[in-house]
Amino acid sequence: MSPPSTAMPTSPHLIADSQSDPATSAVIDAVIDAALHQLNHRSREKLGDRYRRLRRQSLVIAEPLSPEDCCVQAMPDASPVKWHLAHTTWFFETFLLERFESGFKPFHPQFRMLFNSYYEGVGERFPRPQRGMLTRPALAEVLAYREQVDQRMLLLIDALDANGASTSAVAAGGGDAQPQLAQFLSLLELGMQHEQQHQELMLTDIKMLLSLNPLQPAYQPLPESVPLDDPAELALQWHRIEAGVVEIGHAGPGFCFDNETPRHRQFVEAYQCASRLVNNAEYLDFIQAGGYQDPSLWLAEGWDWKEQLALRHPLYWRRDAQGQWSEFTEYGVQALQPHRAAVHLSYYEADAYARWAGARLLTEAEWEHAAAHLQGGGREFFGVAWQWTSSSYAPYPGFVAAAGAVGEYNGKFMVNQYVLRGSSSATPLNHARLSYRNFFPATARWQVSGIRLARQG
Amino acid sequence: MSPPSTAMPTSPHLIADSQSDPATSAVIDAVIDAALHQLNHRSREKLGDRYRRLRRQSLVIAEPLSPEDCCVQAMPDASPVKWHLAHTTWFFETFLLERFESGFKPFHPQFRMLFNSYYEGVGERFPRPQRGMLTRPALAEVLAYREQVDQRMLLLIDALDANGASTSAVAAGGGDAQPQLAQFLSLLELGMQHEQQHQELMLTDIKMLLSLNPLQPAYQPLPESVPLDDPAELALQWHRIEAGVVEIGHAGPGFCFDNETPRHRQFVEAYQCASRLVNNAEYLDFIQAGGYQDPSLWLAEGWDWKEQLALRHPLYWRRDAQGQWSEFTEYGVQALQPHRAAVHLSYYEADAYARWAGARLLTEAEWEHAAAHLQGGGREFFGVAWQWTSSSYAPYPGFVAAAGAVGEYNGKFMVNQYVLRGSSSATPLNHARLSYRNFFPATARWQVSGIRLARQG
Amino acid sequence: MSPPSTAMPTSPHLIADSQSDPATSAVIDAVIDAALHQLNHRSREKLGDRYRRLRRQSLVIAEPLSPEDCCVQAMPDASPVKWHLAHTTWFFETFLLERFESGFKPFHPQFRMLFNSYYEGVGERFPRPQRGMLTRPALAEVLAYREQVDQRMLLLIDALDANGASTSAVAAGGGDAQPQLAQFLSLLELGMQHEQQHQELMLTDIKMLLSLNPLQPAYQPLPESVPLDDPAELALQWHRIEAGVVEIGHAGPGFCFDNETPRHRQFVEAYQCASRLVNNAEYLDFIQAGGYQDPSLWLAEGWDWKEQLALRHPLYWRRDAQGQWSEFTEYGVQALQPHRAAVHLSYYEADAYARWAGARLLTEAEWEHAAAHLQGGGREFFGVAWQWTSSSYAPYPGFVAAAGAVGEYNGKFMVNQYVLRGSSSATPLNHARLSYRNFFPATARWQVSGIRLARQG
Amino acid sequence: MSPPSTAMPTSPHLIADSQSDPATSAVIDAVIDAALHQLNHRSREKLGDRYRRLRRQSLVIAEPLSPEDCCVQAMPDASPVKWHLAHTTWFFETFLLERFESGFKPFHPQFRMLFNSYYEGVGERFPRPQRGMLTRPALAEVLAYREQVDQRMLLLIDALDANGASTSAVAAGGGDAQPQLAQFLSLLELGMQHEQQHQELMLTDIKMLLSLNPLQPAYQPLPESVPLDDPAELALQWHRIEAGVVEIGHAGPGFCFDNETPRHRQFVEAYQCASRLVNNAEYLDFIQAGGYQDPSLWLAEGWDWKEQLALRHPLYWRRDAQGQWSEFTEYGVQALQPHRAAVHLSYYEADAYARWAGARLLTEAEWEHAAAHLQGGGREFFGVAWQWTSSSYAPYPGFVAAAGAVGEYNGKFMVNQYVLRGSSSATPLNHARLSYRNFFPATARWQVSGIRLARQG
């Protein structure tokens, strides 16, 4: 019999227009069981390696960037890369070192405030729209911060790996060892999941920043071997799914955030689900058919928003004087690739396209059910772009907000946001799962977000 | 076997921050069947009487008001009473007289633009936030407009009543008579439903306007015989409902709007439903317990909104220098009545109160199921205040937007709004039903909106 | 030897974006000398007649308007006509009746707050942008308010006229009679000047309101006998004025506001002054020459403002589909009259036109000097349109703000406003003078404001 | 007989809320005479040295800053230091190298757009509020840009120095040599004056940026030898100046901007002028006397602005929990120095303080006349802080805007700005003069601006 699903607080760094972040001490109890499960089933000696690899990945992402690139904030919803690098480190320092390290001393007394994104639980907080003003500490100092915290973290982790079941090296105060071990492990897991979320945001935030520069700099050079387009892509097909009661939400022993629980039943009427995402050629058809000029295709609120900003195409598309379309990508400006998925779309654009195409978006229950049960779902549903669903972000039935600071989190963003499912080309490997609920306001465009169509069965 | 449910376009006058309105020629086909059903089952000789009575009711609402009261627009989301009076008349003139009256001539050529609330279907439109600038036409002229249109409408209706199955008096051009009759009847039904929606808005809009006046004028004198409060109100009880697949949406032959269709299945986990709405005494407890100062109780977006507006109590509550609470009502300022339902609450306030009370709001499926099946549901669920649900306003599975102008309507507002169920003290009699879906943004407070609590089963 | 000039506080009702108003008890002392002067030189028996005639003029202005017209506020800078009618009455009630009438009782206890436009001196104040919300009191009640206050005022004035030097009827408390008489007379003068200022605003505010109505209603019918245009208008001529020290500011015994004092010296280099205002034909040339599209003609701030509002012509000009120009006037929409002065222009437009014409605006010293010394200046400089000068509104050298509430006034608006000189077609007769300083922000267009050109001598 | 004054376009980098900048090709003719004058009177062999020293000074200013510090834009009115460094270089490249260098090739083709601040004359322009987004080019690349342009400039200048009257090395195309020489020299002078203006802005912009950082970093370490305060400062004295006609504006052969011309006459009534600026102790008295809470002291517009931003003290003052005042300076946070001039004040604050002190601000004519004629004026009037005058920024009588692109400049900002006179501690040596007219909107606080009082004579 499988252990119960482990609920962790909703990912805050995926929240565009707020300043919250997951995890506080109250999280600890909630994740103990899952951590213990992992302790038993994952070979402990690899924990340090996993931590090293994951932390190094953030540096790999920042590698092509200058200190200036890492410092500037492209817009209030985005954060500077330097801030991401420091904030994820702050998490380990605050929630692990401060609790489990003997003789803990902070790296810098003011970093607690500068790199905190929490509401109240952990003290004062620097205002999010001002993050780009932090030219100090310099990037070099933030890298030193990471280095030092990692060394101290690895002392704890390696001792744990070395001593196996013995928790003496972990628990600063001794005493009831096993719960402390579990607590440490669960917070460590949370910190790593948290950093992965920020890794995706680093990529989308820096893309936004570079796109604002008239020089249109590439984040990295175009690799010679990898083709940009994939002309072999199959024609769009419709999978039909029968009506019935389905189970939705996280199942099994692995990690999940609390908004994925509890697993529960929903009735889904028969529907059809597209076999792939809408591609650039198809989205261009929509544009050329006057899709951005026809109010009957748009939600009223979306139409007003689009008109006010005079939008006529996806965020990173450009059209030159000769009418040729190109797209700003991580490789700089590239000709529009017709078979690649159309991305960086708002909910309003996704909804309008679907209406134009005589279709609609999936609900999140439909999405999860299809992804779970269609053959080859794993390949088709993940790794290209987050997929807007028509479901507003709301608690699952039976969802209960935890007491304390963590209660600040769980329901906090469940209004006027829409759920995206799957994962994108910017999502770290091993960070996607069937029940993952990403969410953004209907106006968000800077994430790698696309369209999977549905229609009634 | 019961005839199919009849879908009409979503009520537009219940849409706070937009300018749309229901019904265009495309509606016609959609409602023919229902109209024919009514033609057969309702005694036709009463149609003229019903029209007269319903139209007169709008004048009864405007009766206590001066021409100045009727002209001013309290805020962009509201409309002047004079505009409501003219717009509902414009509906009959445009969609019935213009189509069915021989030798039709408009009352005034520019009223088509002044009192149109549609997007594109019916030509130019006067901007909603400017409606209060229309000091001309004067109220007297609008009343004359109503009078003339009513006389012409009644000529058509009375002929219909007199001639029974004969449609010669109705169909201007003759020919295929029965469809024309059905069309006329269905548009007439729609026009009357439409006017009833505006009757509720007239009451809430004028209340808002009078509340802004430091003289705090009463809309009408306090009736001596009716007690303001009802101390006999029972204690709040919890009804438990079992989990299962339920059917939701309009059923049966009567009128409904299209957003109430199609009737479909949903799975509802076991839940409990409060026997009555939260009352003023209970809401005051929330205030006095510091509910408006505790961010952990609020949705993040609601907290920011509330802080920016410095809200500390419901819209019409006032607190005097001695700390005594009163409420601005249709009878002027009255002492707060502890047993009356707390009303004029935003979604954010309703949600925060529920969290404080250790409960939550109902989903709309839970609401509809409970109201349909609990004993005495009809008494308890209607006529006091609209009840916020936690359901965002979204299409039912299988909902298909009609082609043409009506397609402008159906899905148009289904984003960033929340569904309210039931009906309020301002809702016209016979305008409420189990499947009715009212909807407003989470910030709306000027409607008669309250709280019914739920909790997990 | 001439008596000293009498300073009264700056006219507040000419202040577009604020809520202040002249006169408080502190004014009293400042105007005593002037009042005594008038007492001696004006035949006292006509005072009641003058008061009656002047007060009646406000009703004449409101005569063509419905209660609805009088209630609505066209924009935050404007006030409803009903408010003007009540506020000018409030002035007499508050500053004269309350001080000089035995057994004074206010007409309505809350009118003090509703119709007060002062900062602090006279208690609470109703926010200016909300004035249009005051559907109560009704226009009829405001007219009754005027009627009652006038009767009571005339009791005092007529007693004064009848008794001559005796002040017993005036001074409620007896005692030092002559100062009280002077005080009464000076406040009476101020109240009447104040009402005249509001009479001009009533005309400009109602014009703005009617212009917003798609019906484009006329304020009054076009008189048959009066030609709209005056083709006999002479060609523009340039008057040359020599350099020298000139005296500027109010001189002589008559009434003036304090911003017109002290009379002082300025050095004016030689300049030329246009003999008449720029007319519609000339301004149309500017438009047709692309004046609104050429940034080199505009102040940078004016260009940005104009672009944001997409302005392409004066406030009340309209251009039909055939390219014909018309103008919304008090007589409704009329064909553009080429020889009439171009009016309803902002400072930015006046400045841009002058630059395009190879000229500039006058400074206020140049204007006053030219108007005083050119033959026929009186005819040419007054009664058509206020004339923008290039002078920012600033204190004259030696201007000293009075102590107390009146000190709230004098310098209060002397920043980011520009002085207009002369008077307009909407200015009451006998309300214009050489030293009068009107002032508005550079964006103001709803006043009757035009252009008189200058160039270097 | 002295040569005529040389008018150059108004300093653009002193313009806070616009994006313009001085000098275009049209400037050339305007400054030829002055340049020739300088050619004759300044020893030519020092020109290269002067250029080197002046350009090096910009690098000295940037020296204490990291690449991140140089990249970020503190607010829309400010520019990043990197942008200043590039823009001043762009000036020399565009207006000198491009015209006078044989075989000119731009350093980078897109820098023309990125670092252009002109309206139209020189092509496309990057929007000012986005300047902080330019993480590319990196600071290092901008420094290389400076280095290369300087080498090329010095080739031209050194050849000129070496060859004396011979212009063959300067004039690319030969021909009429003397005018080309003059043109080169005048543009060189303009470019150096322009860079000096930006040097002051670099200091004020970086101060603003560092002040926003909670770490409150010092721009440079506090020098041990220099005392922060100067307790020996004398008591404030009043200098009395007689009434009379005075001459105002630039006189003599040196460089000036065109807004300082023509020299002209003004009549000044007798007045008194304070011997020094208001100091921190005096300004603190104003604060502690409730100056920020008393509306009677403030211009109405200033009061509203201050209330909206909740301002209670100068921009860089801080008050700790114990009530101790400190000030953020270039040396980090320092205890408030009572005898230092109060700086970083808006016009509104300066005006309110003066009113509270029973005084007023000087007009710019009064200021210039006093500075020119008071003994020791040079010491007292310059080098501490710019001094707000009560004069709005307006053209001098006879000021004529030049034709062409330069005409875009001259009058362009002469509205809703106030003139500051003198110079500040951030002004480069040799960049101040009696007739210099600095100007900013009444809200500007980030410049080193203070208060010199005046009162009537």
From TrEMBL, chains A, B, C, D:
Q: In which pathway does it act?
A: Amino-acid biosynthesis; ergothioneine biosynthesis
The record's listing under InterPro entries reads: CTDL_fold, DinB-like, DinB/YfiT-like, EgtB, Sulfatase_Mod_Factor_Kinase, SUMF_dom, SUMF_sf
Residue span(s) of domain Sulfatase-modifying factor enzyme-like: 240-372
| Keywords assigned by UniProt, alphabetized | Iron, Oxidoreductase
Amino-acid biosynthesis in keyword set: no
Where does the DinB-like domain start and stop, copy by copy?
Answer: 51-202
One Pfam family assigned to this protein is: DinB_2
Q: Which GO terms describe its biological process?
A: ergothioneine biosynthetic process
In terms of PANTHER family, this protein maps to:
HERCYNINE OXYGENASE (PTHR23150:SF36), SULFATASE MODIFYING FACTOR 1, 2 (PTHR23150)
- Recorded protein name is Ergothioneine biosynthesis protein EgtB
